[in-house]
Design goal:
Number of domains: 2
Order of helices and strands: HEEEHHHEEEEEEEEHHHHEHHEEHHE
Largest sheet: 4 strands, antiparallel
Number of helices: 12
Shape: elongated
Strand content: 5-15%
Helix content: 40-55%
Number of strands: 15
Radius of gyration: 25 Å
Length: about 375
């Protein structure tokens, strides 16, 4: 079994599923994900070339310094928010790796009831965990994700419970960034076709054919990306106001009701923004489902030690409580793990012997 020394060592950097987790599981990165570096390279190239055009043709303009400052600020915000969204753990569950335990779980007997509708819960054969409602397994990340919205290939990560807000901020920042680029490039394009634009039409003849080509290509790229982000933001606003995620909307059959939706759109938005785990208080589990579901623990809470034990040795992640799930309404008595002598026994239910799982859970420092 994993001793305390090994657990502390693994907190620094751990490889779980297909991702490395660091900073006690708060952040993660997929080493095989090529979308994020490609995305950053594209945006850096776009930023550098626009700065080059502004510096070359606007350096004598009174607006030169303002255009440059705005472009730098928007680009900096874009890069920081992209990294924040891509690296933040979306809400990944720790795999069980205990095949003996999985044989005792019959997913067909696990039933969750919400709004008078019964749902059979699923069992993930990859993570060997019972999957709660709103939990989906991502084959790219190799893990089950809580409140999974979608896997973003551009960020090389899933969008879930813990980074969905960051993703929305990123979309809004990108809209401002690409709108500014489109307006600036459009002004250059108007110069190319010899349309008078303020006092800048005199520089038209100074533009090289290479610059004209780059301006047209960059305008097309920025325009397409800008329109894509508009559609993306509108879809997410609709989904959030109706109490659903992208995954749930795509997988729900046409005409089927949404069990997580509140009557008020304002209440749906408020729940998403302030208490995204509140929906669990409306779910009733049968005995078979309740027996296994709370033994699942989020990776970030396990590596940081932010979890509790109940008298019946169930695991409760602190993230659930932080995000609005009131366990007191479920009549579950919390016991501080630091004062519980059976902590090591409960860990045995989370991860089996360390020597048998080096291929699954590896300290990257070794």
């Amino acid at each position: 079994m994993i001793n305390e020394h090994n657990v502390n060592a693994m907190k620094k950097c751990v490889f779980i599923g297909n991702k490395y987790y660091f900073c006690k599981g708060k952040y993660s990165i997929n080493p095989k994900g090529i979308g994020l570096p490609l995305c950053l390279m594209l945006f850096i190239y776009n930023f550098v070339h626009i700065c080059y055009l502004v510096n070359k043709y606007y350096n004598n303009s009174s607006h030169y310094i303002y255009l440059l400052i705005i472009n730098i600020i928007l680009f900096t915000l874009h890069i920081l928010q992209t990294l924040n969204t891509a690296l933040t753990d979306p809400g990944s569950f720790l795999p069980n790796y205990n095949e003996d335990k999985s044989n005792s779980i019959d997913a067909k007997l696990m039933i969750a009831t919400i709004q008078h509708q019964d749902y059979f819960l699923k069992f993930c054969r990859t993570c060997l965990n019972a999957r709660d409602l709103r939990v989906f397994h991502c084959s790219d990340c190799g893990l089950c994700i809580l409140r999974h919205d979608h896997h973003c290939p551009w960020l090389s990560t899933c969008i879930g419970l813990k980074n969905h807000k960051h993703f929305l901020f990123l979309v809004i920042i990108n809209l401002a960034f690409f709108l500014f680029n489109c307006l600036l490039l459009t002004q250059f394009l108007l110069l190319i076709i010899k349309v008078n634009v303020n006092d800048l039409n005199e520089i038209t003849n100074e533009m090289t054919n290479l610059d004209k080509t780059f301006i047209f290509v960059l305008l097309c790229i920025n325009g397409v990306i800008f329109l894509f982000h508009i559609v993306l933001l509108i879809n997410h606003i609709i989904y959030i106001s109706t109490g659903q995620t992208t995954s749930e909307r795509l997988k729900r059959k046409k005409g089927a009701t949404n069990p997580f939706r509140n009557k008020s759109k304002i209440k749906n938005i408020s729940e998403f923004w302030n208490y995204p785990m509140k929906y669990k208080e409306r779910i009733e589990y049968n005995d078979k489902a309740a027996k296994f579901l709370d033994t699942n623990i989020l990776i970030c809470d396990y590596l940081s030690g932010n979890y509790y034990l109940t008298p019946n040795k169930k695991i409760i992640s602190q993230t659930y409580i932080n995000y609005g799930y009131d366990y007191t309404k479920q009549n579950i008595e919390l016991i501080d793990k630091s004062n519980n002598s059976t902590e090591d026994d409960s860990r045995e239910n989370i991860i089996s012997d360390d020597s048998d799982n080096k291929h699954k859970l590896v300290n990257s420092n070794n």
